[in-house]
Amino acid sequence: MAEDGTTIRVKCKDCSFERVVDADADPRPADVVIQHGERTGHTLAVSRIEDDA
Question: Dihedral of the CA atoms 6, 37, 31, 29 (nearest 10)?
């Protein structure tokens, strides 16, 4: 999904949860989405930080 060194924003569409993660670091963006989604049942959006500028 992301290139090396890309910063990813994971933002919940249902609550105020938001987290910025490095695409190639732990936790990975997909892990953040899975963990929050499993705990809450919420829907999350993932975007590259450069896309938001």
Answer: 0
Reading the block at residue 4, the tokens are 């090396």
> What pLDDT shows up at residue 26?
87
- Would you call 19 exposed, middle or buried from its count of C-beta atoms within 10 A (0-12, 13-18, 19+)? middle
The whole-angstrom distance between residue 31's C-alpha and the CA centroid of its chain comes to 8
pLDDT < 50 stretches in the chain: 1-3
Q: What is the pLDDT of residue 25?
A: 85
Tokens of 29: 């963006």
DSSP result, 5-48: T-EEEEEESSSS-EEEEETTSSSPHHHHHHHHHHHH---EEEEE
